[in-house]
Amino acid sequence: MSSVTSEQGSAHAPQSLAALSLGALGIVYGDIGTSPLYAFRESLNHVGASPAHVLGIISLVFWSLLLVVVFKYLTFILRADNDGEGGVLALLALARVQGRSTSAHSGVLLWCGLAGAALLLADGMITPAVSVLSAVEGLEVAAPGVRPLVLPIAIAILIALFAVQKGGTGRIGALFGPAVLVWFLSIAAVSLPWIARQPAVLAGLDPRHGVELLLEGHEGFTVLGSVVLCVTGGEALYADLGHFGARPIRIAWYIVVFPALLISYLGQGAYVLSHPAQPLGNIFFELVPESLLYPMIAIATMATVVAAQALISGVYSLTQQAIQLGYLPRMTVIHTSGDMVGRIFVPSVNTLLMVSCIALVIGFRSSSALAAAYGIAVTGTMAVTSLLFFAAMRRRWGALVTGLLVASFLALDLSFLVANLGKLAHGGWFPVLMSALFVAIATSWQAGAEAVRLHMSTLIVPLTDFFAALDAHPVVRVPGIAVFLARDDQGAPPTLAHYLRHSRALHERVLLLTMKTERTPRVAEAERITVVELSHGFIRVEARYGFMESPSVDCVLDACGEHGVPGVPADATVFVGHSSVQTTGSSSLSHWRKTLFATMNRNAQPAALYYGLAPEQVVEIGVRLEI
Prior knowledge:
Elements: H1 17-27, H2 30-33, H3 39-47, H4 51-74, H5 88-98, H6 103-136, H7 138-142, H8 150-163, H9 170-197, H10 207-214, H11 218-222, H12 224-227, H13 234-239, H14 241-244, H15 246-274, H16 283-286, H17 293-324, E1 334-335, E2 344-345, H18 347-364, H19 367-397, H20 399-420, H21 429-459, H22 463-472, E3 476-485, H23 494-503, E4 505-517, E5 529-533, E6 538-545, H24 553-559, E7 573-582, H25 591-603, H26 607-610, E8 618-626
Parallel strand pairs: 3-4, 3-7, 4-6, 7-8
Antiparallel strand pairs: 1-2, 5-6
Helix pairs in contact: 1-9, 1-15, 3-4, 4-10, 4-15, 5-6, 5-19, 6-8, 6-17, 6-18, 6-19, 6-21, 8-18, 9-15, 9-17, 19-20, 19-21, 21-25
C-alpha cells in the first residue's frame, strides 16, 4: 500500500536521529551546499556589482531558499512519499495509483514523470562536472600560474571518483556527514568577518530589494536564471527521502545548512560591497584569507566530491527504479553492500556518467559556462515535480486546495524556467538533448515491451486447454521439478509449449513462476509470494517485488516451502524464454521505435542473470517475435 504522510520509515529505526541527521547533511545537502561556489558569482556577472544589484541578489537568494526549499520541498513535497520513498519516479508511481485511470491522463503523467527523470539524469551528468571544476578553479586564485592545470586536475578527480564506484561507496559514505559538516562550518567561518565589516549587507534580506531588481527590465528578470543555482539540491533532497526520512532532513537544514548558506551568501555580498572598484573574479575564494586559501580549496574539493557522489548514487537508484517499472531494458545491477540494500553499482550507467562528465569539462572548460546548462535541468525537474505532486495529492487534500498550492509552486518554478530559456544556446541545450534522448529510449522500450506482451498473449495457451491436451496425448513424466518463468499468470507460457513440442516429456512437477513489479517501493515479505496448486503436478507461483527491490528467483524458490510447496532443489532446472525481436510485424510503432527497441532488446541483460540465476541451472528457449 502507498502512503502519503509518513515522516520516517521503520527502516530508519535502528539509527539515532542525530546519526540520521548527520547522514542527511552529507548525502542530501552536498549538492545545494556547494552552490555558494558559483551561484552568487554567476548572478552578479549577469547584472553587475553595483550596491543595489548586490542587495537585490542577496534578497532573491534568501527568498528563493525560503520559498523553494523551505515552503515547497520541506513543508509540502516531502509529504508526498510513496511508502516512505521520494523522487520523481516514486512520485510518478504514486500519482498513477492515486489519479484517474483514463489512458489520456495516464499518458500525460507518464510523459511528465519521464521528463523529470530525464532532467534528473542530466543533472547527474552536470553536477559532478560543475562541482569539481568550481572547486579546482580556486587554484587560479591561489596561484594564477596553474591555470592550464585546472582542467587536467578536474578530469583526474572525476576519473578517480568514477573508478572507485565499482568497489562500493561504504567508506566514502561514512565520511559524507562529517565532511560536509566541516564544509558548512568553514564557509560560515570565512564569511562572518566580512559581514561584520559591512553590516549594511543585511539589508539584502528585505524582499523589496529583490523586487526592485526584478522590475529593472529584461536583465532584472533573467537574473533568476542564475539565482536558481542556489536551490539546485531541492530535487535531490526529495529523492533521498527514503534513506533518512523527513524529520532528519529538516533538522539538518534548519540547524546547519540554511544558516551556513545564508551566512556564506551574505559574506560574499559584503566582500563585493567592500571592494566596489575591484573587477569581479572568483568571489568565494577571494574572501578567504590567503593563509587559509589552500585548506579551503581542499575542503571545497572534498565537499564537491561528496556532492558528486550523492548525485551519482541517485542516478544508480533512478536507473534501478526505471528498470523495475518497465521504462528501461534490464541492466547489470551490482549490490556493493551486504547490509545496505540501497548501495548499488550500475556499470553501464557509471561509464556513461564518467564519459559525459569528462566531455562536459573539456567542452565547456569553466564552471561559469557549465552553470548555463545547470539551470535548465534544475528548473525543469522542479516544474515536473509540482505537476506530479498535484496528481498524487489532489484526492487526499482536495483539487481546490492542492491546485492553489501547486499554482504557487509553478509560479516559482516557471519563473525560474523562463529566466533560463535564454541560456539554451549557451549550454542549456545539453540537458534538453539528454532528456529528449532518455524519453525517446524510455517510451520506445515501454511501447516495444507492450507490443511484445500483446504478441506473446496470442501464444499463451489457457491451462484448461493445455491440461486437456496432456490428457488426450500423454507424455513421459520424468522425476524432478522444472521451473518455467512466465510473463503473466493467465496460462501456459510459450516456453513451456515449445519445450513440450520438442522434447515430448515433462517433469513430474512443473512450477510456473511469474515475477511482478508493483508501483510501491517495497513489498512486505508476508505478501510477496502467492502459491496456487493446479492439477497434473503443476504449481502456479506469483512473486511480487517493489520498484526499489532486486528480484531473485532463488530467494522465491527457497521461500516456496513456507507456502506448502515441497522443497525445490538448488539444482532445479529453470527454463527462461529468450525473445528475438524482428521489426517486420504489423504493430503501430514507427520504424525507428521498432529498431531502437530491437537493439535494446538484443543488448539487455539476460533475464536469467537479472534474476540472479546461475548459468548452469538455466535453459534458454528462443522465441522469434515480430512487432
